[in-house]
């Protein structure tokens, strides 16, 4: 059994981070190193899926729940428009292998495409 992910530790309260919204199976926090005026992360409460490809194959309803939560936090924290990014694999910049979506909003430019 590997160590719990940083996001699981945040969910358990072991690492401080405000949970800004949650649903039955997912939660949202602010990214600690924002790449856009609004940079939030939406994350399944379970770390069963390492990336969005595994999540889509294993639990498409949970993927839809993540997208709905992204929409809701983008509306609450910005004007409702947002960019949704799932870095998938180390070569694409993924560093935490507990699937999560970056929600980028506010005034965006190409430099925020990498999440
Ligand atoms: P990835 O690089 O895997 O797509 O995204 C991981 C994200 O998690 C990064 O943008 C990073 O800034 C964020 N992150 C890593 N550790 C923490 C933390 O302890 N708290 C918060 N709020 N975000 C974190």
Number of strands: 5
Q: What spatial order of strands do you see in the largest sheet? A: 1-2-3-5-4
Overall domain count: 1
Q: How many angstroms separate the termini?
A: 29 Å
Write the SSE topology:
Blueprint (H helix, E strand, L loop, with lengths): L5 H6 L9 E2 L3 E5 L7 E7 L7 H7 L1 H18 L5 E3 L15 E5 L10
Antiparallel strand pairs: 1-2, 2-3, 3-5, 4-5
Helix pairs in contact: 2-3
Explain how this protein is built.
This protein has 115 residues and is an alpha+beta fold. It has helices spanning 6-11, 52-58, 60-77; strands at residues 21-22, 26-30, 38-44, 83-85, 101-105. The chain is globular. It has a five-stranded antiparallel β-sheet, with helices on one face. The model has no long low-confidence stretch (mean pLDDT 95). α2 packs across α3 (60-77). It has a single domain, classed as HIT family, subunit A. The chain is 27% helix and 19% strand. The termini are far apart. It contains three helices and five strands. A hairpin with a 7-residue loop joins β2 and β3 (38-44). It binds guanosine-5'-monophosphate. Guanosine-5'-monophosphate binds at residues 6, 15, 17, 29-33, 87, 93-96, 115.
Short characterization:
This protein is an alpha+beta fold and 115 residues long.
Defining traits:
115 residues, alpha+beta, HIT family, subunit A, 3 helices, binds guanosine-5'-monophosphate
């Amino acid at each position: 059994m590997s160590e719990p992910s940083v996001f699981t530790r945040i969910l358990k309260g072991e690492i401080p981070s405000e949970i800004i919204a949650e649903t039955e199976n997912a939660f949202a926090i602010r990214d600690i190193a924002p790449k856009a005026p609004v940079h939030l992360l939406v994350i399944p409460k379970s770390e069963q899926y390492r990336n969005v490809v595994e999540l889509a194959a294993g639990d498409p309803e949970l993927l839809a729940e993540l997208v709905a939560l992204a929409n809701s936090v983008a509306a609450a924290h910005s004007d409702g428009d947002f960019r949704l990014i799932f870095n998938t694999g180390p070569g694409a910049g993924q560093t935490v292998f507990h699937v999560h979506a970056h929600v980028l909003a506010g005034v965006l430019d190409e430099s925020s495409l990498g999440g």
